[in-house]
Every structure is written in structure tokens, then in C-alpha cells.
């Protein structure tokens, strides 16, 4: 998030108010600190800690939306993350975001990244792939979903006020979602290599 | 970027520190950086409904400037242009509760709504009864079906003033919320930006506007609502704003009104009065009478040049509540 802070600010300047990169950087810097200073036992514990930290540091619309996503993910997480487990976690996160933000697909929001991501993970699970493959597929689908927001007209959030003028700009929330899942995929690959 | 700041990350904390030091007779700060809020110096008023508002910083004097007698009990400043998180809102809500419950006055921005909604649920766990009123006075947003709905802009000041007076006279929570809703139903606003502003942590202007262009129908961050047009005279711009506002409010002959011409931070008072002059003339042409006026910087957008026009339709009760004593850093009369 820190590396992409300015890129997200620029995406948000185009169709929002330019605070998304700053807020995400602040939130995930706090998450890193909390994870280093707090004992966590389960995957659910880690995700719940991330949820609480984001909710209490990010603010704006992204704070409650990502906070709810991680909270629902923490409840859905089992003891291991195989492909089905990854799909369960991503579906729960998506459900939380939709419930909080009341956005649908193609409203030009982070739902356009979380939706394809959770479907891609489920496809890998059905095909008998591994957990790492599921996260990887989710990250790629989220990035494609973020790119696919460019031609859309925003119907939710700050960008909706631009109407047709939001066309041609990538949604910053969809892009930060892609960054998160990309980081998760990188961590999973590293974990696999051990 | 040239700004009178020390560190972009410290803007809100240092500004609040100065604010409470300058107005120590009126306000105190929670002093807790993670749960930062400003509240009345005397603490919660026993038996009185508490009024709490808040939102991203950068709109000063909104909201901390309106904490005091006859208006808000607490204000929660988020990061610049970013709504506060639930934690400080809950802390402010608990601090503002005098036992009669708390009204949250929330501007209709997705982030503000989500964080206040969460905070209200958490405050109930602390045994504070919370009711929320969403302010959405901005007529620039035409089709709420495909947007997040009308934004809350400068009309928020009038909601806070009048609901604050109702709370001060002893109305219960339901009645104060009803008054706030009534003000919201009778107030409309629209704004214009001549230049963008620069958010300290972004370091460059929030949007690009050519030298000969203006943005009509902006929100309080400069985000657009209607159209980008070539620069025009003050009278032409004012007519566009006022007509949209008065048409939407259906201002009719005999209506009694408050006219608020609000500066966005970078426009001199002289220009605001030029806008006021034309807006008032247009309202009078419609046979309405402007009973009360406010001209100045009340809901700003950092150093953005521009203004907004707000019209509130009064009835006898709203007028007497508007006139009731208020003593805050940014608004004071009768006390």
C-alpha cells in the first residue's frame, strides 16, 4: 500500500477526492504494527485483527467496507486455507462489502474486483486446484476486474456524482482490492516455498 | 504546494490543538489522538439531548466551530476530507450524552454515513440512545437513483443551528430529530468551484480546472455534480445556482427565507457579497422575503475558490429557533 500510495491517490483524484491512497497506507501500516505486537492463533484471529484495525484507522468509505470484508472473512475462515477455504473467505468478504455498501457488480466499485476474485477462487476449488493457485487466480481476476471498471459509469460512492464523466477512469477501490489480493498471492507463494 | 503546515500527517491534530487553545472558554479536546473530538467546555448538559456531528477535516469552521451553547455538543474531525472512524464518534457520543440521548447529524457522503451508522450501533452498547438525521441539501445531484444520493453541504450549518436550539429549549430526542428533519426538508444548496484545492497529504490539486473553466454543482470537496462551463460573470453564475436551488425548493411568493452565501475558503468576502446581492434580488423577484442572512466561510473546502448558495424556507417555529441564542467559535448571537 505504501508503494502504491500515490498511484491510488491519483486514481482517486480523478473521480473522487484524492484520499484513498493515504487512507489505505495509514490503515495497513497500523495493521503491520498490530500483527507484530499481537498474539494470534488462527487464521480467523489474524483476519479479525486486520478488520478491527482497518475500521479504527482508515475512515472514509473504505474503512467500514474493508473492515466488514475482513470481519466476515474471519468468521468464514477455517483452520487451513485450501482452495475451497480461500473461496469461502473471499465469498464472505464480498458478501460483507455488498451488505455494507449496497453496490452491485458494474456499479464501478470494489465489488467489481471482489466478485471476479471470489468466482475465480471457486473455479480453482472445483477443478481441484491448491489454495495457492486459488489465491493466485483470485488476484489475477481482481486485477482484471479493476481494469474492467475503466469503461463503466459510476453508480455508487463519490464517483457517482461524475456520472458519465467517470468513464475512462479506473475505480480506486477495485484497484486497492487487486493490490491486497496480489500481496496475499505473493505471500502464499512464499509460504509454499517455505 | 505551499501551505502553512508542519507535517501533512499532523495537520488535524495541530489545528485542533490551536482551536481549543484559542477558544478555551467554549471547547475542550478529548486529547486522545486515536479518539479525537471537540466538545463543550462544560461537558454534557444534564437532561439535554446531545448533538454530535463530524466528518472529514478541511471544511472549517464546520464542525468544531459550531460546538457551544445552542448548537453542537461535540464534533468529530476526521483526517482531511476523510470521515472519522467509528471509535472517536462513539467516544464523542458518550461524552455528549446528558442522559436524554444523542442526535447524530450526518452529511450524506458514503463514508460519513457508514462510519456514523457503525458508531451509532456501538454507542447503543454503551447505553446511549442515538438517532441519526442525514443531511442531503445539495440539488446539484439530480438523479439519486444512479448516485449515492444528494450530498450534505452548507445546509448542514442551518440544521445544526436550529436542531441545537430545539435541544437547548428542552425538546426530547424524537422532537429534536423531527426538527432537524424538517430543516433538511426545507433547505437546498448548490455550489460552484473556480479553482481546486490541495489536500496536504496529496500535495497537488484535487482536480484539474482550466483557467477559463468553472465547475457548477460541486460538493464540498470540489467533486462535481452538474457541468463544467466557461467562466462567467458573478451574476450569471449566481443565477444558475439560485435558480436550481429555488426551483427545487419551489420557492413561492410570500415565502420567508434564510439566505446563506457560503465561501469555499479561497474567495474574498467582497465576492461573496456580490453573489449575495444577486441571489437576494432573484429571490425577491419571486415574491419571497429574505428574513435572515449569513454571508461568509461556514463550510469550506480548504483554500478552494468558489461559493455556494443555500436557501432555507422558514415557518414561525424554525425562525424562532434560528434566532435563539448561540455562542460558538464561528457563530454567535443573542448570547
UniProtKB/TrEMBL annotation, chain B:
<comment type="pathway">
    <text>Polyol metabolism; glycerol degradation.</text>
</comment>
<keyword id="KW-0319">Glycerol metabolism</keyword>
<dbReference type="Pfam" id="PF02733">
    <property type="entry name" value="Dak1"/>
</dbReference>
<dbReference type="GO" id="GO:0019563">
    <property type="term" value="P:glycerol catabolic process"/>
</dbReference>
<keyword id="KW-0418">Kinase</keyword>
<comment type="subunit">
    <text>Homodimer. The dihydroxyacetone kinase complex is composed of a homodimer of DhaM, a homodimer of DhaK and the subunit DhaL.</text>
</comment>
<dbReference type="GO" id="GO:0005829">
    <property type="term" value="C:cytosol"/>
</dbReference>
<keyword id="KW-0808">Transferase</keyword>
<dbReference type="InterPro" id="IPR012736">
    <property type="entry name" value="DhaK_1"/>
</dbReference>
<dbReference type="GO" id="GO:0047324">
    <property type="term" value="F:phosphoenolpyruvate-glycerone phosphotransferase activity"/>
</dbReference>
<dbReference type="GO" id="GO:0004371">
    <property type="term" value="F:glycerone kinase activity"/>
</dbReference>
<dbReference type="InterPro" id="IPR004006">
    <property type="entry name" value="DhaK_dom"/>
</dbReference>
<feature type="domain" description="DhaK">
    <location>
        <begin position="7"/>
        <end position="333"/>
    </location>
</feature>
<dbReference type="InterPro" id="IPR050861">
    <property type="entry name" value="Dihydroxyacetone_Kinase"/>
</dbReference>
<protein>
    <recommendedName>
        <fullName>phosphoenolpyruvate--glycerone phosphotransferase</fullName>
        <ecNumber>2.7.1.121</ecNumber>
    </recommendedName>
</protein>
